[in-house]
Design goal:
Length: about 400
């Protein structure tokens, strides 16, 4: 889908690299531009595979690593020459850094008028916010997300994964695609900016819209949906948890049938969606007793057979080994080119004809000479001279 599209990925840690990996999964050629120290994510503990941090491995598949020292004039020139051959640049620096480095959109557009710049920032690009650190947890907090997560009346809870960083990466990838399409149609590049905070606010969707209309502030409600009942998790006979959400009257009747409690469907307290919400505590008490009679797996199988929305709460091990994950190709075995040993890695959520099988994440500087030779037509003598001067680094 993006075959032949060249992306320079100057981002680091998680949000930007995740965007770069998504673009690679769509077929783009993604070149990870790193400093001699490398992306900080290469150093994140505690889990490693043959010297590579699991954190780094998670969001850098299918890329080539090019190490440039942008503080060195020749390293900076190498980046300029790469921009001439590229279609897009993505990065996630503090807002004042791109201009200081000379890689802001205005500077890059003078080098390549078709260039697209996808910029990921934390909060806002003007003082005093431009200097504020914006780690994932903080953005979850100030973006309203944490107020909706956790038990009712309990301690606010963060998401189990970095929802602020990852949502930012998703928006960055989508924005970059839109800008690439515009450049393709007009022949003129553009810049798209994505703020981590903006993404969290945008994802409030109906919670924010409800507030705008009613003035009622949404609050955390555990696993229970505030507008649908039943729609929550219940503990089963084996101590495992089952999520159920029989939304709509047809599903509700079938749900009661699977429970062996068809009378619940016509009980005045529960016979309509409005009644179920009004009497959700009573309904939850009844269902808690029913679900305690069988293991979660048995309930899950029975609901699946009846086509009623329900599923066991699976841990990461269960989720990536379930048959559906295999059927959907969501777990790959990828060989480390340095050793030939296989590592399980997550597959791509994009399914299309000719979708690429992404390679193992690159070693730091593994492709510096290859890329500068192919895209910038640097001869071997120049590459060796740049390496000797410390302007670029080619992995041994």
């Amino acid at each position: 889908m993006l075959e032949g599209v060249r992306i320079l990925d100057l981002s680091h840690v998680l949000g930007g690299p995740f965007a770069g990996q998504l673009l690679a999964q769509l077929g783009a050629e993604v070149y990870k531009i790193e400093s001699p120290d490398g992306d900080f994510s290469r150093t994140v503990p505690p889990h490693w595979f043959e010297g590579d941090s699991s954190f780094f491995l998670s969001c850098n598949r299918g890329k080539k690593s090019v190490v440039l020292d942008l503080k060195h004039p020749e390293g900076k020139q190498a980046l300029i020459d790469l921009v001439k051959a590229a279609d897009a640049v993505i990065y996630g620096f503090a807002p004042d850094v791109p201009k200081r480095l000379g890689i802001d959109f205005e500077s890059l557009a003078k080098i390549n008028p078709r260039i697209v710049v996808g910029e990921l920032i934390g909060l806002h690009d003007e003082p005093p916010y431009s200097k504020a650190p914006s780690f994932d947890l903080i953005v979850q907090a100030i973006g309203g997300f944490m107020s909706l997560t956790g038990d009712k009346g309990g301690t606010p809870a963060r998401a189990g994964y970095q929802i602020a960083d990852l949502a930012g990466g998703l928006y960055l990838a989508v924005g970059t695609l839109g800008a690439l399409f515009k450049a393709l149609k007009s022949g003129k590049g553009t810049k798209v900016q994505v703020s981590l905070l903006d993404c969290q606010l945008a994802m409030l969707t109906w919670q924010a819209q409800n507030f705008f209309i009613s003035g009622e502030v949404p609050r955390a409600n555990g696993s229970r949906h505030p507008m649908i009942a039943p729609s929550e998790v219940f503990k089963c006979a084996d101590g495992e948890w089952l999520a159920v959400s029989p939304t709509g009257e047809s599903f509700w009747r079938d749900f009661c049938g699977v429970l062996g409690r068809p009378e619940l469907a016509i009980d005045p307290r529960f016979s309509s969606a409005k009644a179920r919400i009004a009497n959700v505590d009573a309904l939850s008490a009844v269902l808690s007793q029913v679900f305690a009679s069988k293991p979660a797996g048995e309930w899950e199988a029975e609901f699946f057979a009846a086509r009623v929305p329900a599923g066991k709460v699976k841990d990461v091990n269960e989720s990536v080994t379930q048959p559906l994950a295999q059927l959907r190709g969501m777990v790959d075995e990828v060989a480390n080119p340095a050793t030939g040993n296989l590592m399980r890695m997550l597959g791509s959520a994009f399914k299309f004809e000719g979708s690429p099988q992404l390679a193992y994440p690159p070693r730091l500087g593994a492709n510096t000479f290859e890329v500068l030779s192919a895209l910038c037509e640097y001869p071997q003598a120049r590459l060796l001279g740049l390496a000797a001067a410390g302007a670029v680094v080619q992995a041994a």
